[in-house]
């Protein structure tokens, strides 16, 4: 289960990077910010999952 969550978070992080890059390429600041926010959320979830794995 933990591996599935980690993979899902990595996927969200990559999706956020794509959104950010696309936003930069086309000059869409809103899309760029959404991508950064998505990456931040995915990284936070990934960190929480790592901490949870360490404690168990």
- N-end to C-end Cα span: 13 Å
Q: Characterize the biggest β-sheet.
A: none
Strand content: under 5%
SSE run: HH
Average pLDDT score: 93
Count of DSSP helices? 2
Catalogue the unreliable spans: none
The count of strands amounts to 0
Structure description:
With 56 residues, the chain is mainly α. Helix content is 93%, strand content 0%. The chain is built from 2 helices and no strands. Helix 1 runs antiparallel to helix 2 (29-55). The radius of gyration is 13 Å and the shape is elongated.
Can you describe this structure in just a few lines?
The chain has two helices and no strands. It is elongated, with a radius of gyration of 13 Å. Helix 1 (about 1-25) packs antiparallel against helix 2 (about 30-55).
Topology (elements, then pairings):
Blueprint: H1 2-26, H2 29-55
Features:
56 residues, single chain, mainly alpha, 2 helices
């Amino acid at each position: 289960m933990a591996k599935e969550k980690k993979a899902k978070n990595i996927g969200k992080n990559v999706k956020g990077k794509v959104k950010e890059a696309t936003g930069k390429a086309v000059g869409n600041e809103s899309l760029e910010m959404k991508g950064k926010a998505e990456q931040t959320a995915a990284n936070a979830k990934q960190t929480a999952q790592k901490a949870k794995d360490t404690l168990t």
